[in-house]
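Two entries, shown back to back:
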Amino acid sequence: MYCKLCFRTMGAILLLTLFTSCLSVSSSTASTSLDGLKATATAELASMVGLTGLTQKARFKVLYTQVMYVGGYGGGTFALEEGQGLVWKTVTTDEDGNTTSVTAERALLKNLPDGDEWWYLGWDNGTDKWEYEVLMDANQKSKKIRFYNSDLQRVEEAEFNSKLSLGSGSDDAAPASGAIAGINWKDLTSYIQGTEKITVGAGTYQAQKLDYTVKTSSSETSYTWWTNSDVPGELIKYAWIKTGTKSVNSGELAAIKKGYTTKFSSY
């Protein structure tokens, strides 16, 4: 795959070099116009040889972990109705005290007759906004993504290699689960620390409080989730705290919405 991509990329670079050399002019006005043509040509070639798809798949994998498994929770991630979505507000503080706020959004767009599902995933930190529609099989394994290529002003798609194992090192492999490792997600009773009344943007709920602590030779991190099985996706609020530092990752369910449909004509 990489050899084919390498030859395609080399060919594209040669074509781009020939194209841009033919566009060299002395007029500053014409040069400005041609700069736009060169940028479009570069984007077109990147799309043609698959570089855009590889970049978008790599970005999607990061987003998938943070949005599908918001808070690292793996209990009821996919329990949504068709057209229903969840909006999350998250805040991350690093060890230097720097804070980042993100709006994370996921929605089940469409159930297909063969068991596949179309999902929407969105991520917005106020500066950058990423949006994808992803086709997943009945086991929620990502098959392909669709996205808007702003450089070319069109919707494109990229496929994952179904023969590769989840989370393998290949760029073509579908992303693996983003749930915190070491927990028996099928039986959470041993982590329950009681119930609490929790108010978040989406409403007020009676929630089970789950605690889990990970200790290593150099650090200790506590994970807390507040859940309610009647809430879509189950999770209402979460907090990760690294003991002895300023490092905190927290989030809450801001809204439960309906009426989602495809933005990218995916079905």
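entry 2 starts here
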Amino acid sequence: MINRYTLLQKIGIYIAICFFLLFMLLPFLEMFMASLRPLKHLFRSPYQFWSDNFSFDAYRNMWTTVPLLGRYIANSFFIAASVTLITMAFVIPAAYAYARLDFPFKSASLAGFLAVNMFTGAVLLIPLYRVLRQLGLLNTYWAIIVPGVAFLIPMGIWLLRSYLEKIPIELEEAAFVDGASRIYTLRRVVLPLAMPGLIVVATSIFIGAYAQQFLFAITFNQERAYQPLPAGLFEFIGYQSVAWNEMMAAALVGVLPVMVVFLFLQKFLVAGLTAGAVKK
């Protein structure tokens, strides 16, 4: 039987949750408030959270201050979606192989994937630049997509492998007895059962791809037409002033695709994250 919480314990839990949510949401709230304040009110002393002159002018003016802002937002979504699709195409068969097959250096290669995640993109910028230059991929979408895929594949393999191992192998063995091939079994038996896990992994990859665009964009891409939003926000910085309120407004608009993905896939994310938490 599950122990019931006392009233004081429930109050303590709710207070802790409120503090946690406040800690997580306060930066976004400050960004939103800053986008509504006039520029001259942003650096008042003493600091004032509430202003008497709130307006949505920044949300209108940001499109004229940075004419390519819409293109930058679309580029960010396109790059993140492309990285997600390409990464999942590699992750699914690799994770299945690590979950079900035995082959030489299996553990060593898994440890190698884990070691790759210990290195940040900044450590490998120079060799990546030389490789991309030799391949002729600089100043294209691929200059951001290829490094993103390379850095996110190890994480995807580790996440999906642990989920696939929870699927009963007896289901696959029954398909083999009926004459199904391993590819057919993966496509018609394993993947439908692993759909919640696939969505969790794909969402994690999408968020990772959306977050890591800045470093690769400013290093490997100098064409404005291919720049994502994080690099495009630099255009709000002028020679003598910075349009901070418009930059905050553009940043908030830029995270809307991620928020939409979360809201749309919320049901599947909860199912995937809690799968295997209870023994049957």
